[in-house]
Amino acid sequence: MHLCTSGPHAVLVVVGLASAFNATYQKAVQEHISLFTDEVWKHTIVLFTRGDWLGVKTVEERIESEKGLQWLVEKCGNMYHVLDNKNHSDETQVTELLEKIEEMWAGNKDGPFEVNLGHAEQTEARKEVADKKAKRIRQTAQRQARILKELFRGIPRSEKNHNV
């Protein structure tokens, strides 16, 4: 991000339509977007890939059928685009996406998205603290598992079955 001198004009959140947008997927998107300030949503477009998987269903029907997709599309000001991965010869798909990006950029009175590197550094520091805590918890659980194995190793098999 620091290589974009004036900041990025658009952020694309890529969502494959071949799989469900479940709570885990939504949480991952939220965590990634949280690296930025809330202003990023004004510069974000949802890019749906695998539009060919929709069949006769429209993308709007798919969005309405999943609360997570509704949330995401609403956060992006209803800015989204669908790519059909099987139709490689249709160059209008990319042209239309670029037009939507230009339309969004023109509609943003504030100009490009300002990257707050301090915010990103703070978020990264919080992530490192959480990762260290998770590592300590894993190590404690592994140590406890080893101790339990050792304890059970000394008990005859018939006693183990009787106590369980």
Automatic annotation (TrEMBL):
The reply to whether Signal figures as a keyword in the UniProt entry is yes
Give yes or no: UniProt keyword Transmembrane helix. Answer: no
Q: Where is the AIG1-type G domain?
A: 2-128
Which domain of life, per UniProt? Eukaryota
Q: Which residues form the signal peptide?
A: 1-20
InterPro entries to which the protein is assigned, alphabetical:
G_AIG1, GIMA/IAN/Toc, P-loop_NTPase
Pfam families referenced in this protein's UniProt entry, alphabetically? AIG1
Keyword list (alphabetical) reads:
GTP-binding, Nucleotide-binding, Signal
Q: Extract the GO molecular function terms from the UniProt entry.
A: GTP binding
| Protein family according to the UniProt entry | Belongs to the TRAFAC class TrmE-Era-EngA-EngB-Septin-like GTPase superfamily. AIG1/Toc34/Toc159-like paraseptin GTPase family. IAN subfamily.
Protein name (Swiss-Prot/TrEMBL): AIG1-type G domain-containing protein
Which classification does the entry list for the species? Eukaryota, Metazoa, Chordata, Craniata, Vertebrata
